[in-house]
Amino acid sequence: MTMDWVSMSDTVILEELGKRIKEYRLKKRYTQQNLADRAGISAFSISKIEKGQPVSISIIIPVLRVLRLLDNLEMLLPTIGISPVEALKLKGKTPQRIKNPKSNY
Question: Using CB atoms within 10 A of its CB, is residue 55 exposed (0-12), middle (13-18) or buried (19+)?
Answer without folding.
Answer: middle
